[in-house]
Design a protein that fits this description.
The protein is of the alpha+beta class. Helices cover about 65% and strands about 10% of the residues. The strands form two sheets. A five-stranded mixed sheet has the order 2-4-5-7-6. A two-stranded antiparallel ribbon has the order 1-3. Helix 2 packs parallel to helix 4 and helix 6 runs parallel beside helix 7. The radius of gyration is 43 Å and the shape is elongated.
């Protein structure tokens, strides 16, 4: 039916088809002599066609009206045959009634199917409307979240800049009055130098976070990266009597990444672990493969990180240190996300914390970047 021209699929064309079938059958029944029993039987059986078509096209009402019309048109021939071939006339009455009832039943079933189809169509339209509204709400929510995040970031940056600026302003004021002792002037100059360096470090880290460069992918041996990071952190570890242990699983396959960024990420985690270690202790850098990913864990034996702090530890400007900028872990999480990986934190067994970096071992062209919350 879908391939027929639209004019032939219209209700008028269907009504004409049913009417023509009824009229043709009536005419043939009228002109065929009563003694041609076989032909009359065939014509009687063909009466089911207009009734069933009327039921399918127009429902039970259409089948009922078609049966009434056929009965009216067949009445003269039935009357004629009643005297010449009464058995044929009786068969025709019975078959008209039976086929008419069949057409009505088919029409009821067709009406029910159409009603269910309309309900499905209405449900589909409602689902499409709800889906569209949901998408619009999600887009609006994302826009609001981005604006909120930008506002929080700006407020945090302003807060971090305000403290060193206050120190610089105070020291500059003392020097401007010219009445300070040589010791006080030296202290003021030290404050100016220290706070200026702090501001420079803060802004540099903020730019690294806000505008991270794209990774320059190349294949790298995980064991080589771990050894390089341990070597870079060795000086800081020695000052605190902390031992760095590097444990690599056997037969680690190379990973495609930006080695400098991943080393920066791992070095940040190792230095944090060294600072978190109280007194002598050890920091472990462990590498292994799991579920198609390279896992690199940095664990310490410090006092650990509470659950409340872990919930915010990767947020920009969140820090528990007096001299921290709160951007190191946020930048590390961004680097992991740019590589299609993740950075997570969990309690260490016994004491301390474990930071885990997971990088996909699949080639970079097959990865999907992970959105960093």
């Amino acid at each position: 039916m879908a391939q027929l021209p639209s004019a032939l699929r219209s209700s008028q064309a269907k009504a004409v088809l049913v009417l023509v079938l009824v009229v043709v059958l009536v005419v043939f029944t009228w002109v065929v002599p009563p003694h041609a029993v076989v032909l009359h039987n065939i014509l009687h059986h063909l009466n089911i066609l207009p009734f069933m078509l009327a039921g399918l096209f127009f429902g039970w009402r259409g089948a009922y009206r078609t049966a009434l019309l056929a009965g009216l048109l067949f009445a003269p021939s039935i009357y004629l045959h009643w005297f010449k071939a009464p058995l044929d006339a009786q068969d025709q009455i019975v078959e008209l009634g039976t086929f008419g009832a069949a057409g009505v039943i088919a029409g009821i079933l067709s009406d029910r199917e159409r009603m269910q189809r309309r309900r499905v169509e209405v449900t589909k339209q409602e689902l499409e409307r709800v889906y569209t509204e949901l998408r619009q709400n999600i887009d609006q929510l994302r826009k609001s979240e981005r604006l909120s995040a930008a506002g929080q970031l700006s407020a945090s940056l302003a807060h971090e800049i305000r403290n060193p600026l206050a120190s610089i302003s105070g020291a500059a004021g003392i020097l401007a009055r010219g009445q300070a002792s040589p010791e006080a002037r030296a202290e003021c100059l030290e404050i100016l130098t220290k706070e200026s360096q702090r501001l420079n470090k803060l802004l540099t880290n903020f730019l690294d976070f806000a505008r991270p460069r794209l990774p320059r992918m190349q294949w790298m041996e995980p064991a080589e990266m771990a050894a390089s990071v341990a070597s870079l952190a060795q000086h800081a570890a020695s000052r605190q009597n902390v031992t760095i242990e590097v444990r690599n699983a056997a037969a680690l396959q190379p990973v495609e990444c930006d080695p400098e960024q991943i080393k920066q990420l791992l070095l940040n985690l190792v230095l944090n672990a060294i600072q978190a270690t109280e007194g002598e202790g050890s920091v472990t850098l462990r590498s292994f493969a799991q579920n198609g990913k390279l896992c690199m864990e940095v664990s310490d034996q410090g006092k650990g990180i509470s659950a409340e702090v872990r919930d915010h530890i990767f947020e920009p400007f969140f820090t528990t240190r007096d001299n921290g900028t709160g951007l190191g872990l946020a930048i590390a999480a961004n680097i992991a996300g740019q590589h299609g990986g993740t950075l997570t934190c969990a309690p260490n067994v016994g004491r301390g914390a474990i930071f885990r970096v997971e990088l996909p071992l699949a080639p970079a062209r097959l990865r999907q970047p992970v959105e960093v919350a």
